[in-house]
Amino acid sequence: MALSAPATPFTYVTHFLAIAGLVLVLVWTLHFRGGFAWDAENKNLIFNLHPFLMLVGFIVIGGEAIISYKSLPFRKDVNKLIHLVLHAIAIILGIVGIYTAFKYHNESGIANLYSLHSWLGIGIIVLYFIQWLYGFVVFFYPGGSGSLRGGSLPWHVVFGITVFALAVGNASLGLLEKLTFLESSGLAKYGSEAFLVNFTAIVTILFGVFVILSVLSEGPAQGDHSYSAI
């Protein structure tokens, strides 16, 4: 059931929050944390790729993919392809982002998969891929029957929104975890970097809220994918 409100204002706010999240995570990783590197003596530069790729790649691009049917003015088949491709990009960047965390841990002598954030992260990206694969087979190629698509769509939407909400929550949990480690190593609890990380988490949560509001609000009909969320 759609909310009795137009989708357009929600999508505009979503785009604004996406840009704000991009700016905040870049300021944090480039200005405060020293930038990015794939191989470096300073292993923290490797880790910096993780929050950037997970927030911008997995969360922002994934969220934009979810609302593509509401935010893009193209034909249904074009929006469907954009929806699918954006989600594929989100998955790829998410996998690379998770790999950078393992790479940082392995090269720094830190144990892997010991935290709730890491457990949830692995589970979420697996669910995300299953959702994408099911959407590809049923709604894109080879495509299921009309009855299968119709019966699958409500579950497809609910499952997609649930996985996305879990991803947003886990991203915020990861920011909290990293900030806690930094503060235990001497970072000022009321310093500018601590405030920046907290605001990044808040923007991430708000982005997730407005993605969901955009999906659930009224919008232009797009056939059997009007509220799709792979």
Automatic annotation (TrEMBL):
The chain crosses the membrane at residues 12-32, 52-69, 81-99, 119-141, 153-175, 195-216. SMART domains: B561. Keywords: Electron transport, Heme, Iron, Membrane, Metal-binding, Transmembrane, Transmembrane helix, Transport. The keyword Iron applies. Coiled coil: none annotated. Its main location: membrane. It is found in: Membrane. Its cofactor is heme b. InterPro entries: CYB561/CYBRD1-like, Cyt_b561/ferric_Rdtase_TM. It comes from Ziziphus jujuba (Chinese jujube). The keyword ATP-binding does not apply. This is Transmembrane ascorbate ferrireductase 1. It is a multi-pass membrane protein. It comes from the Eukaryota.
